[in-house]
């Protein structure tokens, strides 16, 4: 067996190729058994492959992704009756099934729609429904107690004169 450097699976199912080389003068029939160290993938049934004399062949093992993560596929070649012919060979496999990609895409689209609906709703209600602004110094006691802004009754006339925009309109008595 010729081990690969690693595989990346970005779909639900894939056929992982395994290259088997025969250095003998006669053709051999081997069973390819693949196992996984973690339950993130499901592996198809072992397959029987005939390898020509002094040749090589590729066996495709069906792998179905279940969840994201990294696993190690361990491959062993055995005879048809189950006696091992080779030492186990491990190959790293990174799994990212497409259903998780679609789920992420749907979540992003849903969040985008929520933002658009929020902006449209904010524009529709406009500033006419907003609370009027408090002009002048706020009463810190009332603000801390109720959370509402009211004018500070203890504010001095100097504070009103320093902020002419925030000063209340003069009445007849003030003139």
Structure characteristics:
rod-shaped, five-stranded mixed beta sheet, Immunoglobulin-like, alpha+beta, three-stranded antiparallel beta sheet
Describe this structure in words.
The chain has 175 residues and is an alpha+beta fold. Among the domains are: 7-96, Immunoglobulins (Immunoglobulin-like, Sandwich), CATH 2.60.40; 136-162, no CATH class. The protein contains 3 helices and 8 strands. It has helices at 98-125, 140-146, 157-162; strands spanning 7-9, 13-21, 28-36, 41-43, 47-51, 56-65, 69-78, 89-95. The radius of gyration is 37 Å and the shape is rod-shaped.
Give me the secondary-structure topology:
Layout: E1 7-9, E2 13-21, E3 28-36, E4 41-43, E5 47-51, E6 56-65, E7 69-78, E8 89-95, H1 98-125, H2 140-146, H3 157-162
Parallel strand pairs: 1-8
Antiparallel strand pairs: 2-6, 3-5, 3-7, 4-6, 7-8
> What level of helicity do the residues show?
10-25%
Structural class: alpha+beta
- Known CATH architecture of one domain: Sandwich
Can you summarize the main beta sheet?
Answer: 5 strands, mixed
Strand content: 25-35%
CATH first level of one domain: Mainly Beta
- Reported by name, the CATH topology of one domain is Immunoglobulin-like
- Tell me the radius of gyration: 37 Å
Low-confidence stretches: none
Q: How many E-type strands? A: 8
How would you spell out the order of helices and strands? EEEEEEEEHHH
CATH superfamily of one domain: Immunoglobulins
State the helix count. Answer: 3
What coarse outline follows from CA principal-axis ratios?
rod-shaped
Give the overall average pLDDT.
80
Lateral strand order in the biggest sheet: 1-8-7-3-5
Distance between the termini: 102 Å
């Amino acid at each position: 067996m010729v081990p690969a450097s690693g595989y990346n699976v970005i779909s639900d199912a894939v056929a992982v190729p395994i290259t088997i080389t025969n250095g003998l003068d006669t053709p051999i029939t081997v069973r390819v058994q693949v196992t996984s160290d973690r339950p993130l993938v499901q592996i198809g049934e072992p397959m029987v492959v005939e390898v020509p004399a002094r040749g090589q062949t590729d066996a495709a093992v069906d792998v179905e992704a279940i969840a994201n993560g990294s696993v190690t596929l361990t491959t062993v070649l055995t005879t048809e009756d189950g006696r091992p012919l080779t030492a186990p060979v491990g190959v790293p496999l990174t799994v990212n099934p497409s259903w998780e990609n679609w789920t992420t895409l749907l979540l992003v689209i849903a969040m985008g729609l929520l933002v658009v609906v929020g902006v449209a709703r904010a524009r529709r209600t406009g500033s006419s429904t907003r609370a009027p602004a408090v002009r002048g110094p706020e009463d810190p006691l009332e603000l801390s107690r109720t959370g509402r802004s009211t004018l500070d009754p203890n504010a001095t006339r100097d504070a009103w004169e320093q902020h002419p925009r925030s000063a209340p309109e003069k009445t007849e008595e003030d003139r």
